[in-house]
Write a structure and sequence with these properties.
Strands 1, 2, 3, 4, 5 and 6 form a six-stranded parallel β-sheet that branches. The mean pLDDT is 96. This protein is of the alpha/beta class.
Length: 140
């Protein structure tokens, strides 16, 4: 049985709703999971999981949230090589450039992307939530 971490930051609750759907997808496959805040997710924690779902909304000029999430992600980036991961998040403007850049960086770091990333504009609709469940299942 695989063990999956769901690590996310949410300012308005949209990415949190997505994270809950990711967890539902993991549960549906019978895998073990843990929801971990960015402040508690350390490089050592990466070794405790077979796969990780990372969720962060677009902030500022299409970038990751920079006070909690981005510092955590920078700290664990050296642990991405060979790790099965998936990305998700919401945005309120732009066209998803932050997610494409983030995905490209993860691939460059050697991560094994379990599936395509999931993004939604604003609050996740039913399709976005179903896509998040599929993302969770793909990590399991």
């Amino acid at each position: 049985m695989s063990k999956v971490a769901v690590v996310f930051w949410s300012g308005t609750g949209n990415t949190e709703k997505m994270a809950e759907a990711v967890a539902d997808g993991i549960k549906g496959k019978g895998a073990e999971f843990e929801i971990v805040s960015p402040s508690a997710f350390t490089p050592a924690k990466m070794d405790e999981f077979d796969a990780v779902a990372f969720g962060c909304p677009s902030m500022g000029n299409e970038q990751l949230e920079d006070s909690e999430f981005e510092p955590m992600f920078t700290a664990i980036e050296s642990k991405l090589s060979g790790k099965k991961i998936a990305l998700f998040g919401s945005y309120g403007w732009g066209d998803g450039e932050w997610m494409r850049n983030w995905n490209d960086q993860c691939v460059k770091d050697g991560a094994q992307m379990a599936c395509d990333f999931v993004i939604c504009n604003g609050e996740p609709d039913e399709k976005a939530l179903e896509d998040c469940k599929a993302l969770g299942a793909a990590l399991s």
